[in-house]
Amino acid sequence: MNREPVNTRTNILPNGHFVNYDHWQIVGPPNSSVIGSDSWQGNTINYMSVYKGSGITQQVSPPAPQSAGARYRLSFLYDNRGDEPGTFSLRRRGTDDSLEIALPPRGNAAADADTRALTLTPVTALIDFDVEEEDLFEFVIMSPSVAISSKNVIVALIDFHLELDPLVLARFVNDGQAFSPADSPMLYLCHGATGDQRHQLSFQPAPNSPWAGTEVLLWSHDNPLEAVVISPEWGENQRIEDTWQVDCPRPVDNDTQLFNLSIYSKYHADTYPIAVSLGHHRLVVESIQDPAYQPVIEYGQTVRMGVRVTSYYLDLPMHGLEVSWMLGEDVLSVSETDEGGEAWFDFAPATEGTLAVKASVESLFYAQGSALHTFSVKAHATDPLKAVRIKFPNMDAALWGEQPVFPSAARRTRWRSCLLTTVPCATLMSGWTGKARPLRNWG
């Protein structure tokens, strides 16, 4: 899309360039308002000529209230080939507010007034009265009652524009992730976000922004291979607060691609550029090995954990990514994913208790900038088996290993024991010489 969009810098006044008579009503004597065409500054333009007290009128609703950041400007070209002035009036219906512009003679009265080449004078004016969104503008162009030519008053290229201050965004939202744009905002889109999983993108202007409630379009000059498709389509207007669906099909390769899009107002305003990165930005971090046991600090024990990092939409393993292993805000270690997207960490706790160890990887799709998985590790300062008390029939409970027990091998013996420990699941082994036999699997 190397060209510029067409649905921007819109003329609020329909048919202000007089393609035909649409939207205009004739005022005064019939057959006294005529559309013609002629050359003007190297281009052929249409114009409306009125005479003998006739005129034309049209009513238009404003798209937004007038404010410090939203101004209405009227511009047009005219000629008066008579001896009396005509008028161009812009009125706010139901009020006394109006803009009255005299169209004085231009000294072009002559016998050949109907055939001479166009000589047009530009006029421009800002609207200085209040405008509310529910108002109605009325345009009225009138000729003097005395005319020496059918081309008494000529009007051409009427433009009525809403001029907006530059856009300031409070935030933009992509699939529920809200970003407050900086000086150079970046939008992260994902390979494979297509179909039912396509992105949902919306924009929120800053409070009291004149852009609020107005229509805008999105446009890109360097959309890679024209692959990114949006709805509404590129160049189609809708309210800025509404949602665009952004479809990013499976790529030819997995490389990250950079391009730009811009927000164009339907009216007159500077464009708002947004840099776009299209890649595997939404990642998933999942466990492939949870802690297998509860480490004991006094023994310097470690426990191994492992994760796999994949792309959210295409489920591809992401290799060469840094995984930060964190406890609270402290980074304990950094490892890199292998070809299978896997990364590993041997955790040596320094404090006892239930510890939340996070495996975090940069994932710029998310507002927090990362994706993570949290492991729960129960660490013990000292060996919990040192506090185990065990009880057999006909004996007092004793610490494990403190008192020998001699079971009878001559007959079946019913074992009854009492285990008091902080270990939730333990296997107790008999301690006599010979093959070790489990006394009971405690769980």
Question: What does this protein structure show overall?
Answer:
The protein has strands spanning 25-27, 33-40, 43-50, 55-60, 70-80, 86-92, 98-103, 121-126, 137-142, 153-164, 169-174, 177-179, 186-190, 199-205, 215-219, 229-231, 238-239, 244-247, 257-265, 272-279, 283-289, 303-311, 322-327, 330-336, 342-347, 353-362, 370-379, 389-390, 398-399, 426-429, 438-442. It has 443 residues and is mainly β. The protein folds into four domains: 25-164, Jelly Rolls; 169-275; 283-379, Immunoglobulins (Immunoglobulin-like, Sandwich); 386-443, no CATH class. The radius of gyration is 40 Å and the shape is rod-shaped. The two termini are 67 Å apart. Residues 410-443 have low confidence and may be disordered.
SSE layout and pairing:
Elements lengths: L24 E3 L5 E8 L2 E8 L4 E6 L9 E11 L5 E7 L5 E6 L17 E6 L10 E6 L10 E12 L4 E6 L2 E3 L6 E5 L8 E7 L9 E5 L9 E3 L6 E2 L4 E4 L9 E9 L6 E8 L3 E7 L13 E9 L10 E6 L2 E7 L5 E6 L5 E10 L7 E10 L9 E2 L7 E2 L26 E4 L8 E5 L1
Parallel strand pairs: 13-20
Antiparallel strand pairs: 1-4, 2-3, 3-10, 4-9, 5-8, 5-10, 6-7, 6-9, 11-12, 11-14, 14-18, 15-17, 15-19, 16-18, 19-20, 21-22, 22-25, 23-24, 23-26, 26-27, 28-29, 30-31
